[in-house]
């Protein structure tokens, strides 16, 4: 009985977390601290600074711009974020690019994407599920607060936002050229992993969701994910979904690495994880390493389920756009 109660508590906690995430995407709940700036001295009466100001050196000239974000009624989500940028004198210099759909978060950071440049970029991480995050990188370009996309030259598409369901998005220079790579990691979801079979959990999820007035599609989708993940047993290894390399051109963007360049980086990371795992086993260590696997090594069923999980948590938000001929 104790195990059953504990199991139900875990599922109830997951349901509660989901409801909080749904509320997060439909209500205004964002609270962030003002990031102070020592090099900005503005008249308090005319200053554009707000409680939601970020100070960031977009152009790398040593003087930070002011980036303000505010919550607004959204077109795709109930609550979204609008952004405006101001120079050090308080003049408005940019606004968010049209049809850029960002939603509120306090999970943002200032990063450099070219280690040989002083330009700073905003990494806007958006929690979309219990362990699913979508990320947009932002800069100033042609009078707009501009989201960086990734060009997939093999498939003639552009890709944004970035996505991970396994830890944080990895942002680092892996090939030593000074330009960072972005690595997206997802779950393996092995086809032969045991599924959770418990009719009590089915009814529990249905009751909790129905009480909140949520639709049957959401109930069915969440139930399917809970059964497949099976308290983590069904998530499997960390999978390297894709690797993107920063291109610091006139219009900064990323480039999705083709299979040979992907393998140069992914192969080293996978080999290193396997070596660490082997050493841990040989030494009878209790520490468990996190082994990696290539996305191309997954069964189609696992790939399809990854697509389903992303579609479910983002409510069908598109992230691939075909390049015009």
Give the secondary structure arrangement, pairings included.
Layout: H1 2-26, E1 53-56, E2 65-73, E3 79-86, E4 92-96, E5 108-111, E6 121-127, E7 133-141, E8 144-147, E9 150-152, E10 157-159, E11 162-164, E12 170-172, E13 181-187, H2 199-211, H3 216-229, E14 238-247, E15 253-256, H4 259-282, E16 292-294, H5 300-313, E17 320-322
Parallel strand pairs: 4-8, 9-15, 14-16
Antiparallel strand pairs: 1-2, 2-3, 3-4, 5-6, 6-7, 7-8, 7-11, 9-10, 10-17, 12-13, 13-14, 14-15
Helix pairs in contact: 1-2, 2-3
Summarize the structure.
This protein is an alpha+beta fold and 325 residues long.
Average pLDDT works out at 86
Helical coverage, percent range: 25-40%
Treating each run of at least 4 consecutive H or I residues as one helix, how many helices? 5
Strand content: 25-35%
Query: Poorly predicted ranges (pLDDT <50, ≥5 residues)?
Result: 1-5, 23-42
From the helix content, strand content and strand pairing, which structural class follows?
Answer: alpha+beta
Got a strand count? 17
C-alpha Rg, in Å? 22 Å
What about the largest sheet? 9 strands, mixed
CA-CA gap between termini: 63 Å
User: What is the chain-wise order of helices and strands?
Assistant: HEEEEEEEEEEEEEHHEEHEHE
Q: What would you call the shape? A: globular
